[in-house]
């Protein structure tokens, strides 16, 4: 079988009852490494450019779902009722929308943004704890009984 790059061929896949269009292309990563991407379509009338366009659009959907699961905690829902589950789904989708907005604005991917937000939250938490510790230390030095302040 002639299976050359940029030339889709019709073939069969084990377990699939109908012929499919098979296609492969070499992909280059940002770091310069290369890999082969194998594409399959049930539309036998597609050409190479159509297949590339379809899969490019599909890939954006895959990235969306990965972000939804990984960065918006969609898969880790603690909700048990229909209402709370619905709220969790809505807020997860909204979070991905906000991440995408920030991603475009700051020219960073979702995972970089998540790390940046996490580090910012950790820093704010540390600063808050340091401030509380400082206040307690000053109160002790001033002779104030901090347990009577409840």
Automatic annotation (TrEMBL):
Pfam families: DDE_Tnp_2
Record-linked InterPro entries: RNaseH-like_sf (IPR012337), Transposase_ISC1217 (IPR006783)
Organism superkingdom: Bacteria
Protein name stated in the entry: Transposase IS4-like domain-containing protein
UniProt source species: Parendozoicomonas callyspongiae
